[in-house]
Amino acid sequence: MNRLERSWYQPLGLLNILLLPLSGLFWLLSSLRRAMFKLGLKRVYKASVPVIIVGNIGIGGNGKTPFVLWLVPYLESLGLKVAVISRGYGAKPPSLPYRVTDSSSAAEAGDEPLLIYKRLGCPVMIGGDRQASIEMLMREDKPDIIVSDDGLQHYQLARNIEICIVDAQRRFGNGLLLPAGPLRETPGRLKYTDLVVYNGESDGVGYELVRNGYFCVKDNQAVAQTAGQGVAVSAIGNPQRFEQSLRSDGIELTATLHFADHHAYSAADFATCEDQAVFMTEKDAVKCQSFGKENWYYLKVEAQPSAALTQQLNSLLKQKGIVNHGL
């Protein structure tokens, strides 16, 4: 996390104040863009099946992907055939839209879409043109419902349900829009979403991330016991939460290496680790499997929803006519 990003979660400082005019410009342009869609001046694409958007109003580290990894199997348990679309941030596919497959690399698909595909096995399509992605899925897979991993601000795509993920610990940082703060939209946007879900809240409408074991980066095999100490390496929005999980499991961290969210790893990034054990997240591990070592591990986590979250989601699915039975 660089100096600017750290400032977003600290008391207001000179750097944030200097950037306020740019935040004002960001607000003006984004508000104008949203108004143009609302007034019909820009065309909105409506898919032939329901679309659920899972996004956030801030950038990085809100826990959106773990929620998608829970949501898709939950919808499948209700008898729905689900497909996922994603912008594929940082991906460099050979063509667009791009279907994630068993032979896809993290460089081609992006870390989060590849993780979703490897964990769930459902159709996953990436590309900035969401309409093209959906139409290809409709031709080739005929899903009953589309889940969009991110895209809350992609107003060109009509949506049946909007779910906004909020980090219960960091919330909205200093509450300012980019670049003076971490927000893409103001907290007032939450009033217009269908469901606000808090990552790290087991009581209200939220979910806890529960640890589900350690796995070897090299071969994805579960390990009964890891090394007792090593280096924590991460390229995620909130590395402190991950590192605290490792310490809670009794692992002594000899060093921590932080890279920018979605960083494209190479073996050279680990030169300072030498022969020490390395601990990373599952999202990081999908980018390191080709050069991972025997003593490199990733921690698998699962979203465990509260009863209130499941109840509200069920009500929404019925209210929107997506599911009419069994809830």
UniProtKB/TrEMBL annotation:
Could you tell me which pathway this protein works in?
A: Glycolipid biosynthesis; lipid IV(A) biosynthesis; lipid IV(A) from (3R)-3-hydroxytetradecanoyl-[acyl-carrier-protein] and UDP-N-acetyl-alpha-D-glucosamine: step 6/6
- The gene name reads lpxK
Q: Which InterPro entries match?
A: LpxK, P-loop_NTPase
- Report the protein name in the record: Tetraacyldisaccharide 4'-kinase
Q: EC number(s) per UniProt?
A: 2.7.1.130
**Which SUPFAM superfamilies does the protein's record reference?**
P-loop containing nucleoside triphosphate hydrolases
| Organism of this sequence | Pseudoalteromonas viridis
Its recorded reaction(s) are: a lipid A disaccharide + ATP = a lipid IVA + ADP + H(+)
**UniProt keyword annotation of NAD present:** no
Q: Which domain of life is it from?
A: Bacteria
Task: State any single GO MF term.
Answer: lipid-A 4'-kinase activity
TM ranges are 12-32
Q: Which family does it belong to?
A: Belongs to the LpxK family.
